[in-house]
Write a structure and sequence with these properties.
This protein is mainly beta. The chain is built from no helices and five strands. Strands 1-2-3-4-5 form a five-stranded antiparallel sheet, with no helix packed on it.
């Protein structure tokens, strides 16, 4: 994962959310995980399956107002 470009946006269905900060990431044998803070100030964790390329959001927390 070192040397990989930082994602600039995440597409979820029809919406695209800018990535403000990549908070954390980890990888396993068949998948990678990314925790990101979006331009909408929501934090979400994305699972990226390898080699399928499928991405799933399995945690999405909006900022408290």
């Amino acid at each position: 994962m070192a040397g990989e470009p930082k994602p600039r946006a995440l597409r979820l269905g029809c919406a695209s959310v800018a990535v403000k900060d990549l908070v954390d990431r980890s990888s396993g044998r068949d998948q990678r995980y990314f925790k990101r803070l979006g331009g909408n100030d929501a934090t979400c964790i994305i699972r990226h399956g390898l080699p399928s390329g499928r991405r799933d959001v399995f945690h999405n927390k909006e900022r408290s107002r």
